[in-house]
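ok posting inputs for the magnesium ion job
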Amino acid sequence: MHLSFERVDLKLRHTFRISRGAEDVAQVVIAKLEHDGIHGFGEASPSSRYGETIDTVLSFLERVELGDFGDPFELEQTTAHLDDLALGDAAAKAAVDIALHDWVGRKLGLPLYKLWGLSKSKAPLTSFTIGIDSPDVITQKVAEAESYPILKVKLGTDHDKDIIAAVRRATKKRIRVDANEGWKTKELALERIKWLEQEGVEFVEQPMPASDLAGCTWLRERVNLPLIADENCVRLHDVPRLRDAFDGINIKLMKCGGLREAMRMIHTAKALGMKTMLGCMIESSIAITAAAHLSPLVDYADLDGNLLITNDPFEGVKVKEGKIVLSDEPGLGVIPRD
Ligand code: MG
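and the output
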C-alpha cells in the first residue's frame, strides 16, 4: 500500500465567520492510497479548535507506515495503527480512513452505502449554513440558499437578534442554530434559547463552552428545544457522558478520525436514545461524500462544506433541493475535476 498526499487551498465563496473566528481559505490535504492497481481518495480538513493545522496533518501522514498491512481490507488493524501513532490528529487519521474505505469500495465495485447495507432513499436533507455577518450580507446569503429547505444559522454573538431578524425577514423556512460555544454563561444561553423557541428553530447546537458540561445539563432541564453536542462530542468515548446534557450529537469525520469511528458513534448514540447528526468542516467533495454515504443512518445532516467553496477539486455527492443524492459509482464515487 502506498500513501501519497498534497495540500490544497479551498477558497470560500464568502468569508466564513463563526463565534470564534473567520476564514477566507480552508487548507486541506488530499490523500491518495494505491494498492493492487486501484486507488482510493481521502481528505483531512484540520481544525485549530481540536489542535490541528495543515502542518500537523502533513507531519502525521509522513509517519503513517502502511507497509506492514497486507491490504486495505484490514480496516480495523490499520485504523488502530493510526490511533497508536497519536491520541489526536483526527483529521489526518480521517484522510487515511476515508482513502482505505474508498479503495475497498472500488475493489469490490460497490458504493460504500451499499456495502454497509444502507438505503440511499433514507439519506436526509442537508442544511445549508449561514455564517455570522451583517444583516445585509445575511439577506444575500439567504437568497443564495433558496434551494435549500433548511438553514443552519451561526449565532453566539452580541448581535444574535439582528441576525435572526435578518433571516426571518428573508424566509420562513426551518432553521437550526449553532452557537459554537458562544454563549459563555448558562443564564445567557437560557435567555437566548427561550427567545429562539419563538423563532421557528428546530434545535440548538453547542450553546455553551464544552468545558461547562454541568451548565449544559442545567440548561437542558429548562429549555424545550433539543440541544445537540458538537464541540463536546469528539470521539466514541465522549458519547455516554453527554446523555444528560444533550439530546443528540453532531459527528464529524474530522473530529473522530474517520468512517469507522463515526459508525460506532452513531450506533452508540442510538443505543443511548440520543439523536444523531453528521456535520462537517470546510471540505472538498471527497470528505463530504464520505460522510454522505453514512447519512442514511442519521436523523440530521449538515453536509454543506463543499457547497461553500468555489474551487472544489472533486465531484461527488449531489444535493437536490436539499436532499442528499448518493451515486452508485464504486467506493466514494468521487471524480477529480481536471
Ligand atoms: Mg457546530
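notes: The radius of gyration is 19 Å. The chain has a mean pLDDT of 97.
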